[in-house]
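Please, structure for the following, as tokens.
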Amino acid sequence: MRAPLRSLVFVMLAAGCAAATSAQTFDTVGTRAAGMGGAFVAVADDASAAYWNPGGFAAGNYFTMVIDRNTVKVDSGTPDGAANGSGLLVAVGMPALGLSYYRLRSTTLSPSGARGSTAGEADALRLDTLITHHSGITLVQSIADRIAVGATLKLVRGVAASTLVPDDGSRDRLLRNAGELDGKGSSKFDADVGVMATAGTFKAGITVRNLTRPGFQTRAGNALLTLPRQARAGVAMTLLDGWAVAADLDLTRVSGPAGFVRNLAAGTEGRIGRKAFVRGGLRLNTAGSRQPVVAAGASYALLGSVLIDAQVTGGSDRAQHGWGLAARFVY
């Protein structure tokens, strides 16, 4: 089949593909959180609490600022699909108030079910890309002395694009070039809510993100890319001076490139020496392949109140890989 005719076939197939999809998972923002394997809902005590648990501001520092960059990838060699994404966070916070902006980008390749039109023609993959810009204000209210409830009210600007492409073996190239797709932008209001409870050295939290499940239509009208509602619970405990352990569990499941995702995470962080911190964690997808994701991270205090964070994440072909860097100011 000649190239123009092949392209026309895929455009026609894409026009008939109007099913809603979800594109962004929980563990995309936060270098410190990623270094603990994603076990952070009950730990969140810096400005990234605007994303991880708005109620965490109440138990955090008097003033904190975070500039954070993360990347994630699911190996493109897996037969079920592939994905990459990134998160950028800029946030400031105090015990009762936070301001935040974060940008999430996700690109997924998944089987479309469409077959090649002739023998020897490649089957079709669905290529979705969604970029969202979240501008939010976090308000926190304490209930008694040990429970805080927070909400991040957000204006979300989304740019969505979706098409069908031939599965010709060049998945890495397709993921890299997804930014060339002609996306359509629209804006929606949304909110995240969180609760943090503290009792001595023990903390428990719960977060619900994307309460309104905002959806963003592609330019061709062939897909609605939706931010799924996500709920996660966590517990954390300080065992020794400067050392803490934590565990998180997703209460909802979302669609990923290789099937559904519902994560169970466990992690730890602690101080070694006067200026250095280390952390590590493990994450399992209890709704999918159960292949482990292993994470490690560290922080170094440059100027007392200014810390540099780094993390690296790895696992099997079906697990996420990534890295992150952040700067934190804590007062």
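The two ends are 65 Å apart (CA to CA). Confidence is low (pLDDT under 50) at residues 1-22, 114-121.
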